[in-house]
Protein: Purple acid phosphatase
Amino acid sequence: MRFAGVTSLLALASSALAQIYVPGTVPENKLEPLQHRLSYAGSTGMYVSWNTYAEVENPTVYYGENVWDLSSTATGISITYESSLTWSNHVKVTGLKPGTTYHYIVSHTNCYNCSELAPYTFTTARPAGDHTPYSAAVVIDMGVMGPYGESVESDYPIITANDSNTMQSLARYVDGYDFLWHPGDIAYADSWLREQIDGYLNVSLEDSYKIYNFLLNQYYDELQPFTAYKPYMVLPGNHESNCDEGGTKDGNITYDLSLCVEGQRNFTGYINHFRMPSEESGGVGNFWYSFDHGMVHYVSINTETDLGNGLIGEDDVNGPEDMDSGPFGSYPNEQIDWLEKDLASVDRKKTPWVIVSGHRPWYAAANNVSNTICWNCKLAFEPLLLKYNVDMVFYGHIHMYERNAPIANGVPDPNELNNPSAPWYILNGLGGHYHGTSQWVEPFPSYLRYIQNTTYGWSKITIHNCTHLTHEFIASSNGSVIDSATLFKDRQCGASVGPTNSSGNFSGNGSVPWTDVNAAGAVQLSSALMIAMAVVAAMSLL
Ligand SMILES: *[C@@H]1O[C@H](CO)[C@@H](O)[C@H](O)[C@H]1NC(C)=O
Ligand SMILES: *[C@@H]1O[C@H](CO)[C@@H](O)[C@H](O)[C@H]1NC(C)=O
Ligand SMILES: *[C@@H]1O[C@H](CO)[C@@H](O)[C@H](O)[C@H]1NC(C)=O
Ligand SMILES: *[C@@H]1O[C@H](CO)[C@@H](O)[C@H](O)[C@H]1NC(C)=O
Ligand SMILES: *[C@@H]1O[C@H](CO)[C@@H](O)[C@H](O)[C@H]1NC(C)=O
Ligand SMILES: *[C@@H]1O[C@H](CO)[C@@H](O)[C@H](O)[C@H]1NC(C)=O
Ligand SMILES: *[C@@H]1O[C@H](CO)[C@@H](O)[C@H](O)[C@H]1NC(C)=O
Ligand SMILES: *[C@@H]1O[C@H](CO)[C@@H](O)[C@H](O)[C@H]1NC(C)=O
Ligand SMILES: *[C@@H]1O[C@H](CO)[C@@H](O)[C@H](O)[C@H]1NC(C)=O
Ligand SMILES: *[C@@H]1O[C@H](CO)[C@@H](O)[C@H](O)[C@H]1NC(C)=O
Ligand SMILES: *[C@@H]1O[C@H](CO)[C@@H](O)[C@H](O)[C@H]1NC(C)=O
Ligand SMILES: CC(=O)N[C@H]1CO[C@H](CO)[C@@H](O)[C@@H]1O
Ligand SMILES: [Fe+2]
Structure:
């Protein structure tokens, strides 16, 4: 596979506009790869996935460290499920160097030999023990953007004209984070009925499965500008379970699961669309798993099902709501047993930081009802998070942003952020979606330190070294930092393993520049995509 090499970025931008794929449309060539996305598979592997409107025979990733030599290949599978409109292609690339950037393309890429087409890149995780500083992004509760989801015209507008939405912000700053963690509520395709009832969409009920699928694909298409370059690590949220949004009400009618066709229940789309490193970490599917990147051990937990032995019974059998989903473990306590084993095996000399995320919160300034505050999640997880000195917890589900203190059993740690022993809790459910933001409830809990529900945004964490970690809330509208706080942990840092920058063209010390990256080809392409997205408004739905 040969490429003409790096081309004029301006030429790329202008030619890209002419041939650009418009999110949500079915391409003429049904094998055309769409929705490129990545996921860490240890520090020497990468899952590369993409979707097509037809089955791909022998789906292949062509890759290499040099853009002009993509002669290494790896192959995988092409899968679909009942009522899906597309095939998910999953390839695990192995035998890579850690902390190293590779160029790649996949089977049936539109223009294999075309100088305008810069191949995508991925960068493998730095091994545990590499103490190079870096940043990562976290976004929660993010749905379809644009005319079928969050927009100025939606009935619950939060963004105003000329604001960037969260996808645009994540694309703009794609060079500012190593990977993106999305702990649940991904796409909000199950809002199709709500949008229909509100008169925002105009579709017929018989086509519901197509609408649901259309919204899913719309969302996955919109991710491409950043998920083609940065691992997108996902976790299940309630909106991934079924097509009915937990029972959508229209006056006296409540639509329930009977509305959902085969393939739109029990997390089926979510299971098929993503590949998370559970094999690498002893977890289960895309439901619970962990991964290392440099100084941090990241743990993804499932708050939707499989909450464990002690919580079996009544409506807890399938998690906090009856979503008629799961279990996914082979026995009731599998997730909790796994979590304990995983946390117990962390080598804090290598990964001094341990960060856990799940979808549903248990500390929040919200109504004390079980589908908002997940008390069962607290019962299931908090004891282990305390026992194993987890540093930080992310969750969302409620559509607001709360920076809380480090908390143990409801009590703020007296040390606050200056060497606390309890985990620091960040709730950020402000990715943005059709239905706007949530209301908070006063009086505020004693652990609350900052709260807002008026602007969408994402979290950026910067791991400076083994003692300092900064969390920032980035406003999607304009990239400004609305809230920032640094956690200090008093501990001895072991020696950094490495080097990683000698082998992998990893320039500098790994600090991520926080700049407007308009000069990067990837971002030119994505701006063009974003412009193209506006065009979709004028097109018919199906
Ligand atoms: C690819 O590009 C090279 C150099 O421009 C050219 O010689 C070759 O014929 C092209 N191959 C195809 C299949 O277009
Ligand atoms: C958006 O930008 C346009 C063009 O610059 C301007 O006319 C308009 O007033 C802006 N709208 C808002 C809400 O700021
Ligand atoms: C909804 O679509 C139908 C059929 O396409 C059309 O007849 C009707 O006018 C539309 N309603 C609205 C409110 O746009
Ligand atoms: C909903 O139910 C109430 C009480 O049964 C009834 O008064 C009302 O007319 C119903 N509304 C509709 C739209 O059917
Ligand atoms: C959901 O799927 C899992 C397997 O993926 C299965 O074990 C479980 O029984 C299913 N649950 C329901 C409610 O269908
Ligand atoms: C919230 O509700 C749970 C029961 O669902 C109860 O155990 C708990 O004490 C309540 N907490 C507060 C702060 O009201
Ligand atoms: C934010 O929460 C407050 C307090 O509940 C509420 O009054 C306000 O309407 C909320 N704002 C938005 C935009 O939802
Ligand atoms: C760790 O990073 C923080 C923040 O950048 C810095 O103030 C501190 O000096 C660093 N500590 C060490 C040991 O390098
Ligand atoms: C950026 O957006 C935030 C949130 O909407 C706002 O508070 C802030 O004033 C804006 N900053 C600038 C420079 O426009
Ligand atoms: C890593 O890169 C920095 C900056 O380019 C350089 O100073 C350092 O020597 C490199 N380390 C190794 C081990 O190559
Ligand atoms: C890390 O490298 C960047 C550029 O690659 C440089 O701007 C920054 O000063 C370096 N930081 C340290 C602590 O060496
Ligand atoms: C900046 C840098 O180190 N670039 C190097 C990347 O790797 C290629 C080949 O491995 C070198 O030729 C570059 O000098
Ligand atoms: Fe949720």
